[in-house]
Prior knowledge:
- This protein has one domain (11-199): Hypothetical Protein Pfu-838710-001 (Beta Barrel).
- The chain has helices at residues 21-30, 92-103, 117-126, 171-180, 191-199, and strands at 11-17, 41-50, 56-61, 64-74, 77-87, 90-91, 114-115, 130-144, 147-156, 159-168.
- It is α+β, with helices and mostly antiparallel strands.
- It is elongated and about 55 Å long.
- The strands form 2 sheets. It has an 8-stranded antiparallel β-barrel with strand order 1-5-4-3-2-8-9-10, surrounded by 5 helices.
- It is 24% helix and 40% strand.
- It has 5 helices and 10 strands.
Amino acid sequence: MKIGEISKPRFEFRSFGQDFSAAAARMARLSVPVPEKVWERSSDEIYIISRKNDINNTKIRNGKMDIKTYVQTVDGLEQWNPLMKGEFPIAKEVLVNEVFPAFMVEMPELTKDTYTYEEFIAMVKANPDLAAVRVHKQRFGYMVNDTICEVGNVLINGAKIVTINSESTEIEDIKKTIADCGLEGVENINYLQAIKRVIGMSDKPLANE
């Protein structure tokens, strides 16, 4: 990276299931040393899930809203870009122009200039096509083949699943990591898809169920 140079968007492999212990053990053994701050991290987040949308990923953490949008899939790996960052209280204009269009649902009646987190969540819960889903993440970070990797214990509305991932700007490095960790043939899905499967918005199973 050079000063002033814009980094390329990352590609990502990620899967969710009940047991990735063998792959996780290989990932840990293959990893180079990583900074202590990524050894283990925990967070509590709210994902806003929409029946009508699979391309915009919306989550809220520490009072801040972050929306990423799907760009493309190359060799089975997904690329996402930031779409919006905002915080509460949030302006009516942002909800009208950015947030609800990202959900692809009918706009609620907005009569105030700004909305608190609680007011926004109430609007989400009032819409039958939306769900506010509690997600707790305990993530363990690694670095394999110059790709950023993690294994995570994830609670989705209290249901425990496991995630494993590798991401990089370089597709070939991710593919090598998938092979090295024994993850070839494992489905690549994102948090949106995994949450929909756990809460029953999609009928598909997760890996190794």
